[in-house]
Amino acid sequence: MRSVLLAVIVLISATLHAQVEVGEFGKGINVTGKNESFSMNLGFRFQTLMTTDWTVNNDDFGQIDGFTPNLLIRRSRIKMKGHVYSPKLTYKVELALSDRDIAVGDEPLLDTRIVLDAVFKWNFYKNFSLWGGQTKLPGNRERVVSSANMQLVDRSILNSRFNIDRDLGLQLRNHNTLGGVVIKEMFAISKGEGRNIRAANLGGLEYTGRVEILPFGNFSSKGDYVGSSIKREKKPKLALGFTYDLNERAVKNRGNMGSFVRDAQGNFHGKNVYTFFADMMFKYQGWSLMAEYADRWTNGNNPLIYSGDVVIGTIFTGKALNVQAGYMFKNNVEVAARYAGVDTPDVVKGDQQEYRIGVSKYFVGHKLKVQTDIGYLENRLKDDGLTYRLQFEIHF
After folding, report:
1. Can you give the residue ranges of every domain in the chain?
2. How is 32-101 classified by DSSP, letter by letter?
3. Is the pTM of this model over 0.85?
4. In this structure, which topology does domain 24-395 adopt according to CATH?
5. Which of 113, 180, 317, 340 could make an S-S bridge to 156, C-beta 3.0–4.6 Å?
């Protein structure tokens, strides 16, 4: 992998008379073209994860069995970003390399899932920017926070059930400051089936709108989208966010996520799926608090999808709450805890509650860290689960 990356950099430098600069750890490799006609920041990161799972039979800690250890490369990513022609024309590309990132299973409509982000951004007027390509939709805060910047080993059950992830389309973004209050507006129109779908549009389009309010101004180093209080804000900082998403005639059981819904003849069936998020991030002198609420429903509030009189699928509807908080000590060790709960209609059968506590050691912020946590997953209709996780992350 290193030899490939170095070969790419050498080729760019030789053919385009670019300037290559290797900065401090965690800042990547910077390439600048002649007369600054283009730039590229190239970075690489990976996470090595060890997990151990147990089954708690009949909700009784005296009946724990099913010891299941695992070790895997949880994520492995290459990221490129920079500008072309003008500083107002920027781009971002992120590629996934781990098996878990790119596996497609038996789904014939999916391309190899190597491309996470491939997006072009044009700052065309003042604070207005137009984005085009595949990237994260302006959904719940926890999902938009990079997997490199998480407070605990991984995201919550709210995120895994309700997030709207990435899609291919257009986004319009703006931000303003009024009397010290920062206001951000985001609107997206996307394909509606999620990332790396090679088929033409199967249902309707997806429409996403989000508004964010930062009443005390911006966080240090964009900390409203960074887990943990890495920068130890000297003054209280608060971010509030609200998202509304409509996926018309969605043909997946979680909007643009999950599995496709087909009848026996292979025809796609769907219905409108609506999702609402409200979230917040607060940081002050080593303390951090993030909370999220999610609500998903369908037209008619009936999650069942029919082909004639036959039920062929169920939209994952319901509500969820996630709250997590932590304190960063001066030696850059953080203790954090999370509670998350998912409440679904009886026909969905997805009720869960998650309890988790973790400890992290940050050597160079999120660029070099060790994280560990232990969690209990309470299931309504099956045995509960107990999990221990240990993860190492390095980001060049």
Report:
1. 24-395
2. E-GGGSBEEEEEEEEEEEEEEEEEEGGG-TTSEEEEEEEEEEEEEEEEEEEEESEEEEEEEEEEE-SHHH
3. yes
4. Porin (2.40.160)
5. 340
